[in-house]
Amino acid sequence: MTDKTKPEIDFIEGPAPTELVITDLEVGTGDEATPGAFVDVHYVGVDFESGDEFDSSWNRGESIQFPLTNLIQGWKDGIPGMKVGGRRQLVVPPHLAYGPAGSGHRLGGRTLVFVIDLIGVRG
To answer: Does the predicted TM-score (pTM) go above 0.85?
Structure first.
């Protein structure tokens, strides 16, 4: 369980990045996530351009657990190296998220900003 509260994501000035941007907001002290690990996270996702929230585990009142292998590339690349207890911001361009506009996903073509709290890891 985490004693953290839902993060507020500040609007990011300037053009959307074309590569993944990883920023540790808080460095954890627990076990480290490795590629392919099974993780337990809380997260908030917003659209880079509008700042509109499109998803949040906080709003559902519970963290979510899944293997990193099942996630968008930006999470596969951005979560390993994180330690339990940490909070990390990922700015994920479309090619590492849901693909180009017209890809069939409602977030296709969008640069996404996530703040992720790593609560647990195994594997």
So the answer is: yes
Tell me if 76 sits within 8 A of 48, measured CB to CB: no
Which tokens hold the place of 76? Answer: 């596969």
From CA 105, how far away is CA 8, in angstroms rounded? Answer: 25
Query: Vertex 41, ends 40 and 45: CA angle to 5°?
Result: 150
- For 42-84, write each residue's pLDDT tens digit: 999 999 999 999 999 999 999 999 999 989 999 999 999 999 9
Residues facing residue 14 across a β-bridge = none
Domains of the chain: 21-122 (3.10.50.40)
Alpha-carbon gap, residue 44 to 113, rounded angstroms: 8
Contact between 49 and 105 under an 8 Å Cβ cutoff? The reply is no
- Rounded Cα distance, 58 and 80, in Å: 22
Cα separation of 107 and 88, whole Å? 21
* CB distance 118 to 41 below 8 Å: yes
